[in-house]
Specification:
32% of the residues lie in helices and 34% in strands. The chain is of the alpha+beta class. The protein folds into three domains: 255 residues, no CATH class; 86 residues, Transcriptional regulatory protein pf0864 domain like (Alpha-Beta Plaits, 2-Layer Sandwich), CATH 3.30.70.1380; 69 residues, Roll (Ubiquitin-like (UB roll)), CATH 3.10.20. The strands form seven sheets. A five-stranded mixed β-sheet has the order 11-6-1-13-12, with helices on one face. Strands 15-16-14-17 form a four-stranded antiparallel β-sheet, covered by helices on one side. Strands 18-19-20 form a three-stranded antiparallel β-sheet, with helices on both faces. A hairpin with a 2-residue loop joins β19 and β20. α1 crosses α7.
Length: 422
């Protein structure tokens, strides 16, 4: 399993920076640049196009930077014009079907975002800054580089960090606009990317950059995932800032995970474990705490009797939840119990599928509806049943109505449970 981690913490993302860093990972980047220089044939109005990959340095680190010189006599083009030019180029050059779909997806994201911002149909919208040939340079260049890396294949995973958006204002054909630009926000709204404002007043994310990233659908990771490193690359853009590095980093390698994809890997998920100890809370407060934490945000709750170092009887309380509820539930624990602190950690867990099925069973010549919880694993599109268990509340209701002990009803239901395995 090959892995690409995109570290944007100190850069944000633009199309030219992303392309410059990718060119630092692939072999023979000049071959891609040669193809991109021929783009001016595919878009009318371009009289000069120069693209070079420059080596520069910052804090002693070698960085890639794209130097693009363009002379064109159009300040706007229709979305259709760019789409036609893009696909004409794709027809004349060898790219995988996945790479071609990716390139069209990125351009469509840009056109659709502009259409939504201006309240027009996508086929009627005219692009201004995004209509320049450098938009096609970024899209096609990134598509070519990722295709060489075989990044569109199933055995390739792309991760990225959270994304600083910058702040302040930017000059556009429509006047001054607040950062992030409206088109950038429209694309972000349809993604699962994690971003934040700042840390400086400048545009750190361009519409093309975020469209490229969104269409890759990367997995968020705060840190570099486990891998054996094969290549790393650093790039920067045209802007220089006093207190911001503006350096985009790429890390390419192979996953250290087993290459055989075990079915249970599909069930891996992140959970938060919240823990605290209390030794000065009454039974009434603890009982109410359990009632207050009996909701869908809490996956599990444990209260374990223990002793503190002062030989006081105490309770170790453990709450499981999804990470997005971590601080909300920590605040609730503090207020409900008056504890001074709550420990938390993020952990992996495997949690298999389950479903509920209702069956009618006959007990003492009377029919009852019983719900059965079925836990299973999907293995090659087949359900491998792990366990079948009747719901206790249904058993209890039958017991109360029939006078038959719960244990005996469980025994009677064993024959129904066997049917699920047949």
């Amino acid at each position: 399993m090959r892995v690409l981690y995109i570290d944007l913490n100190n850069s944000g993302i633009s199309g030219d920076m992303f392309l410059a860093s990718l060119l630092g990972i692939i072999s023979e980047p000049e071959r891609i640049l040669e193809k991109l220089r021929r783009l001016k044939v595919y878009l009318s109005g371009v009289s000069r196009l120069s693209i070079e990959l420059e080596k520069t340095s910052q804090s002693g680190i070698q960085l890639n930077r794209l130097l693009i010189e363009i002379k064109e006599d159009r300040n706007h083009r229709s979305g259709k014009t760019l789409v036609d030019s893009l696909n004409a180029f794709l027809r004349d050059n060898i790219l995988s079907n996945s790479a071609q779909m990716f390139a069209n997806g990125v351009l469509n994201s840009l056109i659709q975002a502009e259409a939504e911002v201006h309240g027009k149909l996508a086929n009627k919208v005219h692009l201004h800054e995004l209509s320049s040939i450098d938009t096609l340079i970024d899209i096609i260049g990134v598509s070519l580089a990722l295709d060489i890396l075989k990044a569109f294949e199933k055995e390739f995973k792309i991760y990225c960090s959270k994304i600083p958006l910058g702040g302040g204002e930017i000059n556009t054909a429509h006047g001054k606009l607040s950062i992030p630009a409206p088109a950038t926000m429209k694309i972000l709204e349809k993604s699962n990317l994690i971003s934040f404002g700042g840390p400086i007043e400048s545009e750190l994310v361009t519409p093309t950059g975020i469209a490229l990233l969104t269409n890759l659908n990367p997995i968020y990771s705060e840190f570099i995932p486990e891998m054996t490193f094969k290549q790393s690359a650093y790039s920067t853009g045209q802007k220089k800032f006093k207190d911001f590095k503006n350096v985009l980093r790429l890390f390419y390698g192979e996953s250290t995970e087993n290459y055989i994809i075990h079915p249970l890997k599909n069930y891996n998920e992140k959970i938060s474990i919240l823990e605290t100890n209390v030794d000065d809370v009454s039974g009434e407060i603890l009982g109410n705490f359990f009632n207050e934490f009996n909701d869908e945000k809490v996956l599990d709750l444990q209260m374990i009797p223990s002793f503190t170092k002062k030989n006081r009887p105490s309770y170790a309380i453990k709450v499981l939840c999804y990470p997005k509820y971590t601080f909300e539930l920590i605040e609730k624990i503090i207020h409900e119990l008056g504890t001074l602190g709550v420990r938390y950690s993020i952990s992996n867990r495997v949690c298999i599928d389950r479903t509920i099925e209702k069956r009618t069973v006959e007990i003492n010549n009377k029919e009852y509806d019983v719900r059965f919880k079925i836990s299973y694993i999907n293995v090659e599109n087949n359900k491998e049943i792990v366990n079948v268990k009747p719901e206790y509340e249904d058993i209890k209701e039958i017991s109360e109505e029939s006078g038959i002990p719960v244990r005996k009803i469980q025994f009677i239901l064993n024959s129904t449970i066997k049917d699920f395995y047949d």
